[in-house]
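Hi V.,

You were right to ask for the full record rather than a summary. Here it is.
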Amino acid sequence: MFLAGLLLVFGFPVFSSIAMQTVPASHGGVVLGVLPLTTSIFAALIGGERPSSLFWACGVAGAALVVTFAISDSGTQLSSGDLFLFLAALSASLGYVVSGKLSRRMPGWEVICWSLILTAPISIAGALLSWHPEFASASSAQTSAFFYLCFGSMFLGFFAWNVGLGMGGIARVSQVQLLQTFVTLAISAFLLGEHVGARTLIFALAASRSWRLAAGPG
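Predicted structure:
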C-alpha cells in the first residue's frame, strides 16, 4: 500500500505536472494513451496475467503511434515534457497493478485510503516545505481545480477503479483508459481553449482503435 501511494500519490502527479509546464494538455492526453500498454506489461510481469498474442500486437502498434505523435508534435526529437509524460505513465501503470492486486484481497476503497494514510507524513512535509504565501490568494477557479484533483481524480476515482481492476483483470480493464485520451482532448479544448487539430484527433483515434482491438475477445 505504501508503494502504491508513492507511485499514485506522488509519482504520477509530480511527473505529469512537470510535463504540463512544457507541453499542452491535449498533447499530454495523447501521449498518455500509452498507459493501457504499460499497465498490461506490468500486469504480465508482476500480476501473473497472460494476455493473448493479438493483445500484445495491437498494444505495441498503439504505442508506436503514440511515440510517433510525440516526436512529430515536438519536432524531430522527444522534448523534456514527453520524457516526464512517459515517466508519469510508468509510475501510474505500475501503481495500478500494485493497487489492483491488493484489491483482489481487500476492498478497493480501502487500498487508496490506506495508501494516502501511509504516505501522509511525506505529503504533509512536502506541503510545508513548498508553501508560498501567494497560495492563500488563489482564484476560485484555481482552488476548485486543486480540490477536484485532491478529492476527484486522486481519491474518489480510485474507489471504482481499484474495484474494477480487481474484478475484471488488470490488463483487460486497463483498456478503459482509452477513453482518457478523448476526455482529455475535449476538456483541454473546452476549459483551456487549446486547439485540437485534425492530426491530433487522427492519432488519438488510431491508437484507441489499436487498443480497442486488443481488448476484444481472446
